[in-house]
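Quick illustration for those who missed Monday's session on complexes.
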Amino acid sequence: MLIQKPSEISSSEITPEHVYLSRNHFIKAAGGIGAALAVASCQRWMGATKIEENQQPPSSKALFDELGDPLTPYSSITTYNNYYEFGSDKQSPAERAKTFRTSPWEIVVDGLVRNPKTFGLEDLLRIFVQEERIYRLRCVEGWSMVIPWIGFSLAELLREVQPLSHADYVRFETVYAPGQMQMQNIKTYPWPYQEGLRIDEAMHELTILATGLYGKNMPPQNGAPIRLVVPWKFGFKSIKSIVRIELVQEKPLTFWRSIDPEEYGFFANVNPDISHSRWSQQSERRIGEISRRRTLLFNGYGEQVAHLYAGMDLRLDY
Ligand code: MTE
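Prediction with MTE bound:
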């Protein structure tokens, strides 16, 4: 399990002193109240006191995920992006999203719920404990990263609105802002970007809404101000810049599936044995590494999530 509570581990046991000190400094700067933990630390901060943009992210040199994989550098995470609203290449989003307006921001949570609500971003930062979660991100294209997200459990948000018993799926929608997102003017794509999860996947403790990374506010190219992160699924499920979360009864139509249902499954669980129609998924290129590495079933989170798919034929329901 990735999430460790501050009392369970002393970061000075696992972190070289200079990194520990710099993280300790970071947590003070961030107004945090948790202990500094190297692996999946659990720290809290209020939105208003997050690290300012001009401060450097904390040293990450000696930090690893629970498999011992090093974190991908901040500079790579923020310059190699998939964000089609800002361009279909990896470099354009960082450049073109610079002026994207992320404040004020609201998320509507409605549909099959007892208590529909609209949350301002500040409400979400105030109501829900923000934790650091170090997760691997595996893109369907065959590359991957290890990212220290900051965010909170989607389940906690959903509990606030009280889903009805026949709410079997959750649909997520990205903002529609063609004035700011130039690619949304290209009508061959089914804008706005949409994604979906089955309700038990949405309620799983690994599923988070992320509001930052490396202890900083979420960069616009990574989906500011708030995005989904589902670490055992291909990255396209982790929809960015969310404005609506709707509880529904039917499996929602999603962006990539409406473009090509053969190539992009609804479940999209990372699975080395199920090839994409144009390439194998057996291996991946970790950004920053030269040789390819073996892709892990459920992206290495099988112990936590395999039970969600018991009895399903993953080859048919991919
Ligand atoms: N969300 C929106 N709205 N638009 C997108 O193009 N791309 C997806 C996902 N979320 C995408 C999106 C894909 S394909 C991937 S791999 C991840 O975002 C990439 O996230 P990153 O740029 O933060 O690494």
